[in-house]
Amino acid sequence: MSNKPFIPTGSLPKSQFPFLSWLRCRSQKALGSAPAKCFGLWETGLVSPDRSEPTVQSPRSVPQRWRQFLFSGIALALLTAIPVQAAERIVFAYGQLEYYLPVSSLETFAKDGTVDRDLGFYFRFFKVTPDAQAKIRKGLQATSQEKPLPVSQVLYAPMGVAALRNLGELIQTGPNRNGFYALRAASILSAADPEGLSFIGFLRHFPTPNIRINLPQARNLIEYGSKLVDVTNAVVQAIQARSQAEAKAEGPINLATLPPLPLPGPYQFTKRTLMLQDSRRDRPIATDLYVPDFKGNMPASIPVVVFSHGLGETREFTAPFMETMATNGFVVASPEHIGSDKGQQERLLAGRAQEIFRASEFYDRPQDVSFVLDTLEQNNQTEFGGRLNLKQVGVYGHSFGGYTVLVLGGATVDFKRLRQECEKDFLLQSLNNSLLLQCRALELESSPQAELLSSGKLQDPRVKFVMPISPVTSAILGPSGLSRVQVPVVLIGGSYDPIAPLVPEQTDAFVWLTTPDKYLIISTSLSHTPQITEMMNRLILPAKTTDELDEKLGDFLKYFRGVGLAFMQVYVANRSDFRPYLQASYVQTLQVPPFNFSLIRSFPADELNQLMRR
């Protein structure tokens, strides 16, 4: 980015603006309450908070304490104190060709619905129907009452920085000039607007006269995304066909001959929270423990399962499944990973943390689970009469928790592959959001803990079964890391997942696994979480009512818990009578359109590669 300051229009004389604006920012900075528009200037490199002349600032150049003062009530009252140039037009750039749309055209359209000559050209060119125009106007009018501090915190966090740099390849401030700083400044200043965060407010606060849309990159992104959708559909169809073939080979299943799959089971249970403290790592690990009430008839061996939640979640994320297992005689433990849970996000938004999750979570999370198992071993004799089976533990996890349980099962981090994947074209990272998480592990590449991650020392020998749900795997573990897992694995994914896409996060992982006992279960129309699933299906299946989708999703989740329970019964509780539930022929009976199950035991790598080459 150029160090040369621009001269915005406003009440100050052009020749005086750089010095007087800097001086005002400097004086306010000394008082710890610099105006928000100074922040916008620092963001774009127009005014330096630390030097005597304009310069470009790094993403961490504004300390945390300053940002907290920055958005105090006094600072917000000074928003109009310094004139800053707003965007005047959107430039659609394609090589030497440039097409313009005045920002005022969008403002007028949002205000009263008037379609002027400039906007009308684009509506006619793209054949935008009146119904679509109404939706566009509604979007332009939409506001969100976000506070500037939380917005700033998110956009300054490492994952926020990476996401903005990707977006800056599309929305630029000049030819081939990434729009990162301007995007961040406009977002934060728009959040400080009394009218609320909005698209029009974003345009008003964009600190350069032109907002350039890089059409070649946009076209590439659309084409790449379209191909990814086609490939995903082709892979799903191939898995469905293979599942049907496996079911046919197994023969028809007689449901009447299967043991009951009680949901819930015969036992009551108690839930209590253990406030654990790992003194070696100085790390608290609050853990929920679900314990069946055997009413004096404690079995000789009690199966144990541990759950690892995903990024920004809590230990209660899959509570219904944990309750189901407890009522069926399992002791279930669910630790809170404090550096990557919902509490960490809340601390970030409140200004008490600087990142969405700590990079140390890549090695702390598996150690949390191992510490919980250590605690259960210590208490086994006194609380359970030594009957907890801690030599054959089952673990399951969601998203980041999926990575966690795979590492506990023996997977290792492949830093060389991770670097190669994270240095690829931004298109790949734009369409696989899980790379924003995975690539942060590169911060540990030269750390003392790197050997922990790459050597397999985080594997827990007590873990004998792993069930990752929508895990993140492709870049951080890769084929070499996943090939080290030799315990039974059940990978679960959905075709509508924009966070950890089925292709490649689960399909590639399944192919790379070399354990002889592996399963892949997919569901059409399933997304990363139940909430995202509902949102995606309402967009894609508008004919379905909310009640219909909710009912279907509820049925699907009940069946999902049943299948999960069956796997735990076989591989953790040693109940071979539940093995028929692990067949494709049984899963074929659980169809709940649009949430249809498919289960496979194998998928040749050359077949997947052929589909990917499309």
Name its key features.
614 residues; alpha/beta; Rossmann fold; 2 domains; nine-stranded mixed β-sheet; five-stranded mixed β-sheet; 26 helices
Verbal overview:
The protein folds into two domains: 129 residues, no CATH class; 379 residues, Alpha/Beta hydrolase fold, catalytic domain (Rossmann fold), CATH 3.40.50. The strands form three sheets. It has a nine-stranded mixed β-sheet with strand order 8-9-11-10-12-13-14-15-16, with helices on both faces. Helix 8 runs antiparallel to helix 10. The protein has 614 residues and is an alpha/beta fold. The two termini are 38 Å apart. It is built from 26 helices and 16 strands. The N terminus is likely disordered.
Blueprint (SSEs and pairs):
Blueprint (H helix, E strand, L loop, with lengths): L16 H14 L5 H8 L20 H7 L2 H5 L11 E6 L2 E6 H10 L4 H9 L4 H12 L1 E2 L3 H9 L1 H11 L2 E4 L2 E2 L1 H12 L5 E2 H7 L4 E5 H36 L17 E11 L4 E11 L8 E7 L10 H9 L3 E5 L6 H8 L11 H24 L3 E11 L1 H9 L6 H8 L3 H6 L2 H5 L11 H6 L7 E7 L8 H5 L6 E6 L7 H11 L5 E6 L6 H11 L5 H26 L12 H4 L9 E4 L4 H8 L2
Strand order of the largest sheet: 8-9-11-10-12-13-14-15-16
Number of domains: 2
CATH topology of the largest domain: Rossmann fold
Silhouette: globular
CATH superfamily of the largest domain: Alpha/Beta hydrolase fold, catalytic domain
